[in-house]
Amino acid sequence: MKTAKKAGGVVALMATCALGAMLDLSHAGRARAEGWTTPSVMSTASAAASGADEATLGPIDPATGLRNPPYPVNPEKPRYAYTGPTLIRKVRVIDGLGGAPREDQDVLVEAGRIAQIAPGGSIRPAADVKVIDGEGQTLLPGLMDLHVHFVGVDRLAGSLETDPAQRSDVYRYKSQLYAFLYSGVTTVLDCGTTPEVGVGLKRLINDGYVLGPRYFWSGQILEGGVEPSGPDHVMIPTTAQVPQVIDYMRSLNVDMIKLYRATPTYIIERATEYAHEHGLRVMIDAWERNDTGYIARYGRVDGFPHLNFHFRITDEDAKELADRGDFVFTTFYALNSFSGRIYEDHPDYLQSPLIKDVMPPEYVALMAAHPTDPMSDVREAVWHEVVEPVQDLMGFPAGTPHKAIFHDMSKIGGENLRKLLGAGVLVAAGTDAGEGESLLTELELIVADGGVTPVQAIEMATYNGARVLKKEKEFGSIQPNLIADLVLVKGDPSRNIRDVRNIEYVFKDGKIIDRASLTRQWAY
C-alpha cells in the first residue's frame, strides 16, 4: 500500500522516464546522467587522479566500479556454486500442486529442468552427476512473492527516499535481489515502481548483470483523476487519456497493469477494456473495496493485489470472483508489520541471517532502532489513509487503539481468505514488502490467520503464483520437464511451516546458487 501524499495536478506522462540515462548501466554513465556525488566511495578514475596508492585503496566492487564502500562487503561476486546435473536422493517432495507430500523420492535435475522423479534409490546417476542426500529434508518449488516493491523499501531507509541519485540507480537494489534468492524466492512480481527501476531490474537480471529472481512488473501505478495518492503514480484524468497511458506502459514491456483506489469505475472499465484489447491484464488495489464482486463486474478487472482486510466479503462476492477467474494476493505481512505484531511475536526478527546478512545495514539499523515496533510511524500514516475514512463503517468506535484495529483487520483478512478458497478463487502469496524473508513470514501468517494447511500455503507461494503469471507450464511446481527452480530445506514444512527457513540449497534454472556469495553485497 502506498501512503505518501503528493500535492500537484496531473503528473506528466513521460516526465518520470529517464530510460536513456538508465540504460547506460556503467557507473560513469550513471554519474554523468544523474550528477552523482557519493563522499563515502572513490571511483577508479578519482583514485588515479588523486595519486592514491593502488594497494591501499581496497577492492573495487565489480558491479558498481566503486572503491571503499561504506560497509565491509563480501569479496566474492554473487555466483552459482554448481551448474551441472544434480540428483537429490531420498527426499520428501512437496510439489506445489496441493497434494500430500511424497516421501522418499529421487529427483534428477539436468540441463536446467526436472528430468526425472522416481522412488528413492531407483535412479542410478552418471559419473558427472552431483548427488545430494535428501534424507530428513524437503524439496519445494522455488517460492514466489507476487506483491513486492523495490522503491517502496527505500522509504524506510532515511535519505535513500529523498536522494534521487540513489533512488533511481538500479544497482542500488541488487542487495534486495540477492535477499530474495537467499530466502528461496526465485520469482517476484513488482506491483508498482518507476520506469527506470522496473526496466533496469529486468535488464540487470535478464542480461546477466546480477543474479536475481525472475522479475515481472506492473509498471507505474495508474490512478484515475488529477490528485495522485502516491509520489510515482501516473494520473488518468479522463477516459480520453487511457490509450496513451496504457500504450506507454506497453512500451515499457510490463507484464500487467495496476490501478489504484481513487480510480472511478468508468475509468477502470475503459482502462481494462483497452488493456485487454492489447493482451494485458489489470489488477486494482481498491483498498476497502478489494475482492468485491461489483468492482470485478463493472470494472472488468482480472484481480486484486490484496485481500480485503476492511470488511467481510459475501459468498456472492467470492463466487463472482471465482466465476470470472479473478486472482487475489494475500499480503498479511504488510498489515502485521504495520501493527508491530511480527516484531512482538518474534523479538529477534531483525537479527535473522535472512535479513541482517543480506539487507543494507542502514535498513536494518533503522528498523532495529525501535525493535518491538519499528513501523509505528508508518502505521499512523496507513491508519490515516486507509482506515480512518471508513473506521466507523468497520465497527471500531473512535478512540480504538490503532494497533488493535490492525490486529482485527488481519483476522478479517483470514476469514475472507477462507471464503475465497472455498469458492475456488485463485489466491497467490504476496507480501507488499521488499525482501525475501517477508514471504517466509507471510507463509506463517497465511497458516495462522488464514486457517489453512502449510501445504495450501506453499501452493499459494508456488503453483498458484505461476498460474497468475500464466507460467505454470514452465515453472512453479515439481513435475518432469519443468524448469528446475527449487528449494531444499531441512525438516518438514508440511508439519511446521517455519521449516521453510531451514534452507540448504536454492536452485534457479537447475543451477545451485552459492548462497554465501549473496551475503554482504552492499557496495552500491
Strand and helix layout:
Elements: H1 19-22, H2 27-34, E1 42-43, H3 44-50, E2 66-67, E3 80-82, E4 86-93, E5 102-110, E6 113-119, E7 130-133, E8 137-141, E9 143-148, H4 164-167, H5 174-182, E10 185-190, H6 195-206, E11 214-217, E12 222-224, E13 234-236, H7 242-251, E14 257-260, H8 265-277, E15 282-285, H9 293-299, E16 303-304, H10 315-324, E17 327-329, H11 332-339, H12 341-345, H13 353-356, H14 361-368, H15 376-387, H16 391-394, H17 402-423, E18 426-428, H18 437-450, H19 454-460, H20 463-468, E19 486-490, E20 503-508, E21 511-513
Parallel strand pairs: 4-7, 4-8, 9-10, 10-11, 12-13, 14-15, 16-17, 17-18
Antiparallel strand pairs: 1-2, 3-21, 4-5, 5-6, 8-19, 19-20, 20-21
Please explain how this structure is put together:
This protein is an alpha/beta fold. Helices cover 33% and strands 18% of the residues. It contains 20 helices and 21 strands. Strands 3, 4, 5, 6, 7, 8, 19, 20 and 21 form a nine-stranded mixed sheet that branches. Helix 8 (265-277) links the parallel strand 14 and strand 15 (282-285). Helix 10 packs across helix 17 and helix 18 packs across helix 19 (454-460). The longest helix is centred in the last third of the chain and has 22 residues, at 402-423. The radius of gyration is 23 Å and the shape is globular. 49% of the residues are buried. Mean pLDDT is 85; it is low at 1-57, 63-67 and 154-162.
